[in-house]
Amino acid sequence: MCCWQVALAWTRPCAVDLGRSQGVSAGGESSFYGAIVALAMGGDRGAIMSALGSDSWWRKTLYLAGGALLAAAAYLLHELLAIRKEEELDSTDAIILHQFSRPKCGAPSLSPFCLKTETYLRMVDLPYQNYFDGKLSPQGKMPWIEYNRERACGSDFIVDFLEERLAVSLDKGLTPEEKAVSCAVSTMVEEHFYWTIAYCQWVDNLEETQKMLSVSGPLSQLLKWVLSHVTGDIVKREMYGHGMGRFSEDQVYAMMEKDMRTLATLLGNKKYLMGSKISTVDATVFGHLALAMWTLPGTRPEQLIKGELINLAMYCERIRRRFWPEWFVDLEDFRYDDESKSCAPTSKLPDLGLYSCTETFRDDTCSRAAHSVDTPSMSPGSDPTGISLYDSDMDTECSEMEPLKC
């Protein structure tokens, strides 16, 4: 005899479990045979059945659970496929930079800390190898680096690690007071301004940010949706724990504007924040302002940086041209356009792999010439106010940098 079980539930307060020794007629010629066990259902049965029949929560739960399972499966598959690559990874006398994948458009990274770290490596002219695995460090941080089988995670600790191991520094010429100001500015940007930009990215402007995610495969759209919404929920939860998430949207944007105006005032007409020479704080500020400049179309931070606070836009463009020569953008973006809400295809970055500032600038002469032949100039000579975007301090050479010991 075949052994089986089936459970039936009525709106009455009981459930029937059919075993093997009794039978229940189902009408017509069909019968169930088994042992009948009746169990009382506690609670308000009307509320239970009403909830089961409601679209308010269980459908959303199923969708989220299914999406999470698919994302987890895709992540596990990615990890399995990456095992062999990790075995081949050799950090002997090489800097391996682990970070998130390049977005489809906008900036080289949607993470200000990844962009800060990679820009810093270019500023000190240290060759490095990108590794876009998305794998977090043991401390749960991104980015992180490997060098001679040692690891450093967290952008500030990466800078300290490189200064100690390779004797590089962008701040040797700063006075103690300037170093103190740099520290204060970095803290304001990373502990306060960062959260307002994250809110604009992953909460208020989630749909546009989702389009920029680089996910491939047959389930790419679903995975992008899951990834963006999970990230948005994490940002909201962490913002609430930080304290900033307890304020209204208008208050969050008011704090963001205050920080941006502070940076604009500190910068003034200077080439960089600490004067005529680049310093570590410039990598930090650029990593955050670049997101407002190139990844948040139609938002309040874009309106500010491309409008009233144009000196911040010129500052970002100055650093981009000097340290990211392969990152082409349309300088028409300097004009704030409330109707511009799509990604510009001209800003897509290739995966260059191993990067050296010196080699890139040497090879860039030919690439720029070829680019100018194939495509017409996309950049105006001045911003809407008439201020030149190509003033004398916007050089693209590293001539003023002191030789760094490696």
Based on CA atoms alone, the radius of gyration comes out at 28 Å
Strand order of the largest sheet: 7-6-8-9
Query: How big a fraction of the residues is strand?
Result: 5-15%
Mean model confidence by pLDDT: 74
Word description of this protein:
By secondary structure, the protein is of the alpha+beta class. It is built from 12 helices and 9 strands. Strands 7-6-8-9 form a 4-stranded mixed beta sheet, covered by helices on one side. The protein has a 3-stranded antiparallel beta sheet with strand order 1-2-5, with no helix packed on it. Helix 3 links the parallel strand 6 (95-98) and strand 7 (128-131). Helix 3 crosses helix 9 (280-294). The longest helix is centred in the N-terminal third of the chain and has 31 residues, at 58-88.
Descriptive terms for the model:
disordered N terminus; 406 residues; alpha+beta; three-stranded antiparallel β-sheet; globular; four-stranded mixed β-sheet
Short summary of the structure?
The protein has 406 residues and is an alpha+beta fold.
Itemize the secondary structure elements and their pairings:
Blueprint: E1 6-9, E2 14-18, E3 23-25, E4 31-33, E5 36-40, H1 45-52, H2 58-88, E6 95-98, H3 112-123, E7 128-131, E8 144-147, E9 150-153, H4 155-166, H5 176-204, H6 206-212, H7 220-242, H8 249-267, H9 280-294, H10 300-305, H11 310-323, H12 357-374
Parallel strand pairs: 6-7
Antiparallel strand pairs: 1-2, 2-5, 3-4, 6-8, 8-9
Helix pairs in contact: 2-7, 3-9, 5-6, 5-7, 5-8, 5-9, 6-7, 9-11
